[in-house]
Amino acid sequence: MCGIVGYTGKDDAVSVLTSGLKRLEYRGYDSSGIAVNNENKITMVKASGEINNLVEKLGEKTIVGCAGIGHTRWATHGAPTDINAHPHLSNSGRFAIVHNGIIENYIELKEELAGKGFNFESETDTEVVVHLLEYYYEGDVRKALMKTVSRLEGSYALGVVCSEFPKSVFAAKLGSPLIIGVGVGENFFASDVTALISKTKNIIYIEDGEFAEITPDEIDVFDCTGKSVKKSVSRVVWDIEAAEKGGYEHFMLKEIMEQPKALKSTIEPNIKDNKIHFEGLEPLGEKIKDINKIIITACGSAYHAGYVGKFVIEELCRISVEVDLASELRYRNPIIDEKTLVVVISQSGETADTIAAMKECKERGATVLSVVNVVGSTIAKLSDYVIYTWAGPEIAVATSKGYTTQLAVMNMLALWLGDHLNKIEETEYNELIEAIRSIPERAQRSLDLNAQMADFVKNYSHYDSVFYIGRNIDYAICMEGSLKLKEISYVHSEAYAAGELKHGTIALVDENSLVVAPCCQESLFDKMMSNIKEVKARGANVLAVALENNHKIYEEADNVISIPETHPMFVSVAEIIPLQLFSYYIAKEKGCNIDKPKNLAKSVTVE
Ligand code: F6R
Question: Closest ligand 1 atom to the C-alpha of 354?
């Protein structure tokens, strides 16, 4: 969703801002714009559609200036038009602002400001902010900004320029992502590290309720009373190559192929002396004996990873695990107290629904453990405990390595919890830890299927209805396989617990249906064979995913994707990879915009 970037230094602001915005494209957007401060005059250019439209418009003008702000907008309030695009300019032209988040009380503020004579141009919630700034301005931008945000309800990451301070850019944050990049003789801010990685690896993470005034040589972070806050500078561990395609046609394929490396980086640092050891989780290891319920909450693919987590944790720990969509949990009256452990899963660490659900759980006294990929993200900061997935930056909107590293953490967490609850015998523990260690290698072997997948999918690209059926962990994998297919190839698909199909949905199955059937749980194999027979009897074409030594599956399935032999409890990673590749090549066959599917945003920072 919306991305913001700010720059002040010695270089041409237009080129720094546009290249930063291009790196934020992956977040999802439908218009963009920049505002540059030059000799006490702000020049603003905005364009709907792709950033190239903005670049084209910019090419028609000469904009000189070394400080400015930029924005990619994912429309919420008002259509994706040039006028609604950010930045927004105050009526006097003194201020320009960009905003990520939602101003919930904008209607009242708009009425109030219109009553005071301010003229509104756009349909956005954001425009009230720039007029409030103008209204409160008495020569001190910091004071005006503090007064302005005290009037706002909702969430924001704000970037501001003021024509009277040509070297300064200002920022404020509450509930939406914002980081500061520290350079030499130049400084930056942005929604995330990807926008800045080609310029600096030195980052200051600012907290909710904090503000910043940034000049080329100074960064002053201050609180709502105007008092400076001492901040430390962190160093980003990944390189620019991680945010580039590196010869692949799409980021998604690159990220699928990077999974063995991402899994290794996520698993290995957490194994010490043949035991799972999560740094910083020792107090939770003590507390866990008092926990009587685990709730896993997340959205989308992260929720699907949570579903796998439920199966492995319940199996190994014999503790009840509920998996809740974050967008649902926040609006019911969940039974949560100090004896509940809430596991929050999020790649971005910025998903609005997940943050809200997590806050709700914390208010009810739960202990919150998050599984997050982005260091310094809101969810990581708000949790009692954090386990990082070390997937590196994920640029394709549809997650792949973000999801499989979450699966790896779910597997490790189950083992860690089981060990702390004394539920696992030593021999079993040793066998399971070996199975976890082998996940990256098994992932690599599943990826070997890539060579034949482009041709293989040609048999399937004509289907416009696909059912994914499975049981237990295989069912959780169906949910993710189905989501992958629909989000990047726009093919309608549904995931069903295999035994549930006959309770209604089988009415839709006929000779025009493709049924994808992961069958990697040996103990449930016979049940799956019956379900496959049921759909075959209705004419469906069945594509199974099975372990390589399973020969029986060929008796019923029309075609089989074989994956390497793996411990059934930890098969999820090896199992989803061919389904990621399947979706990728179907989408490619159909000519879809794979890295940026329509209507979707990478980081869903609004409700
Ligand atoms: C699907 C996908 C989304 C995310 C969901 C949660 O490919 O990427 O379903 O999994 O929006 O995002 P995070 O994990 O960032 O909280």
Answer: 16
In a domain, 192, yes or no: yes
Instruction: Output phi, psi for 155, to 5 deg.
Output: -135, 150
CATH number at residue 578: 3.40.50.10490
Q: Decide if 571 is inside a domain.
A: yes
The pLDDT assigned to 75 comes to 83
Q: By three-state DSSP, how is residue 484 classified?
A: helix
What three-state secondary structure class fits 449? Answer: coil
Tell me the CA–centroid distance for residue 586 and ligand 1, in Å. Answer: 21
Q: Given the DSSP bridges, would you call strands 340-346 and 367-372 parallel, antiparallel or unpaired?
A: parallel
Pairing of strands 492-497, 465-470: parallel
Distance, in Å, from the CA atom of 209 to the CA atom of 146, rounded to the nearest integer, reads: 10
Q: Quick one: 237 and 331 in the same domain?
A: no
Give alpha helix (H) positions in 98-250. Answer: 106-115, 127-136, 141-150
Closest atom of ligand 1 to CA, residue 397: 8
pLDDT for 601: 77
Under-70 pLDDT residues of the chain: none
CA 534 / ligand 1 centre spacing (Å):
33
End-of-domain residue from the set 222, 242, 262: 242
Output the domain CATH number for residue 41: 3.60.20.10
602 noted as active-site residue: yes
**pLDDT score recorded for residue 301:** 98
Nearest CA to ligand 1 atom 1: 398
3-state helix, strand, coil in the chain (%, to 5): 40, 25, 35
Q: Please indicate whether residue 371, judged by its CB atom, sits closer than 6 Å to ligand 1.
A: no
Task: Compute the distance from residue 602 Cα to the ligand 1 centre, in Å.
Answer: 7
Split into its structural domains, the chain has a count of: 3
Residues 61 and 176 in one domain: yes
- pLDDT given for residue 428 in this prediction: 96
Cα 389 to middle of ligand 1, angstroms: 14
Domain boundary among 179, 213, 242: 242
- Regarding whether 301 and 220 lie in a shared domain, the answer is no
Asked if 116 is an active-site residue, the reply is no
Say yes or no: 29 and 135 in one domain.
yes
pLDDT of residue 204: 96
Q: Using an 8 Å Cβ cutoff, are 501 and 468 in contact?
A: no
Domain annotation covers residue 401: yes
The whole-number pLDDT of residue 241 equals 80
Could you tell me if 227 and 272 lie in one domain? no
Is residue 226 domain-shared with residue 289, that is, in the same domain?
no
What's the pTM value of the predicted model, to 2 decimals? 0.86
Residue 168: what pLDDT? 96
Q: Is 517 inside any structural domain?
A: yes
Atom of ligand 1 nearest to the CA of 379: 16
Q: How far apart are CA 126 and CA 102, in angstroms?
A: 8
Tell me the CB-side half-sphere exposure of residue 515, using CA atoms within 13 A.
32
Q: Which of 22, 401, 484, 602 is catalytic?
A: 602
Confidence (pLDDT) at 603: 74
| Predicted pLDDT at 20 | 95
Shared domain check, 509 and 583: yes
CB atoms within 10 A of CB 167: 14
| Domain extent at residue 301 | 247-437
